[in-house]
Amino acid sequence: MAKVSLWTRIKNFFTGKKQPTLTDAKVKDGIWYAKQPDGNYLLGIDESVYQLMGKITFADFPTQLNNLQVEDDLLDIEGDKSVETLKSPIAGTVIAKNDAIGKDIETLNEPNPQVNWIVKVKPAQ
């Protein structure tokens, strides 16, 4: 995982934004998922996707995301080298979606969990 710059940490301290905690992040098929202090999971694009695909040129959510099952389509992405559909590694209810995905594709090419996260999921019980 990419380190968060000192400037970003200082800015987030003063704006009250919390850093994604990725000390216990796991990776499955190009998606990292990390349990947050509130018990929910943050899912994002792993660095291995960039190595496989090159620079990402397009991204879109394939469906209206509400409830996810393991292996459900999570994100369609196109890169310099290939086109892929990333799958969900966990099941649960989507409680937040990164609406910036697809609007500013350059931020998606940063291996930074603050910008390349996809969804926040409340895990299935």
Tell me what the structure shows:
This protein has 125 residues and is of the alpha+beta class. The chain has one domain: RNA polymerase II/Efflux pump adaptor protein, barrel-sandwich hybrid domain (OB fold (Dihydrolipoamide Acetyltransferase, E2P), Beta Barrel). The protein has three helices and nine strands, in the order H-E-E-E-H-E-E-E-E-E-H-E. It has helices at 6-15, 47-53, 105-108; strands at residues 26-28, 31-35, 41-45, 56-60, 67-68, 73-79, 83-87, 92-97, 117-123. The strands form two sheets. It has a six-stranded antiparallel β-sheet with strand order 1-2-3-9-8-5. It has a three-stranded antiparallel β-sheet with strand order 4-6-7. The protein is globular and about 40 Å long. The model has no long low-confidence stretch (mean pLDDT 81).
List the helices and strands and how they pair.
Elements: H1 6-15, E1 26-28, E2 31-35, E3 41-45, H2 47-53, E4 56-60, E5 67-68, E6 73-79, E7 83-87, E8 92-97, H3 105-108, E9 117-123
Antiparallel strand pairs: 1-2, 2-3, 3-9, 4-6, 5-8, 6-7, 8-9
